[in-house]
Amino acid sequence: YLGELLGRYLTLESEGPILDCEAAIQFVVNHLGVPEERVLLMGHSIGAAFSLQAAAHNHPGICICNSRSFSSLSATVQHHGPDFLGVRRSSALGDTIRTVAKYLVLLTGWELNSAALWGKMRGFKWIEFCKDDHIIPTPIQMYQAVGGSDFGREIELVSERGDNHNRRLSPLEWRQHFSLVESALNLTLNPDPNLSKLVLKPSIHQIPEPVTRHIHPRIGTDPVPPQVAQLQFVWEY
Length: 237
Fold this sequence. Notes:
Number of helices: 8
Helix content: 25-40%
Order of helices and strands: HHEHEHHHEHEHEE
Number of strands: 6
């Protein structure tokens, strides 16, 4: 989302990133003419929560991949609050910090309850998770909250040493991921057999006029910025 991607760290309201997701969906559906059931949103961590918020309220028929994300932001803040302040979770002060953290999230409008929205999605959907994710541990994972798989669609990532939350997918995990992408969008992908050569390149694409517009009671119909940052998949041989 733009505030973080551009290194400005200016995301002060949760509705901003959600509207970014909504703008992207509107552009693909309304401008490019892609049917909603052929649109796939892939979100990682808090990005998965933003994309699910945008999809569940206005586009429940699109496909969605929820990768290494939480059941709710308040649960995540409660879990990490005491650790962030160097307080034992099991202490009375730790309990107080968790309670305060929960209400701060709620009062500031930053609650993102993904588990409550998952059942509203009617399109092809799946969850990717790792049991040894140190950022989103098992008790607060989306996978845990929704009771496991949907029609057997989930990918359990291998637990490795180090960062299991932000690490790259392994070649086998990429194959599993793209197998579900193929099923979701009814595609036939022919990637490089050696998926370790897959790279993600950030690129800026100009949006031709007429641009997609935000639809929001407060923002009205302000145009989307003329540039949209996105990741481009590139197969290198």
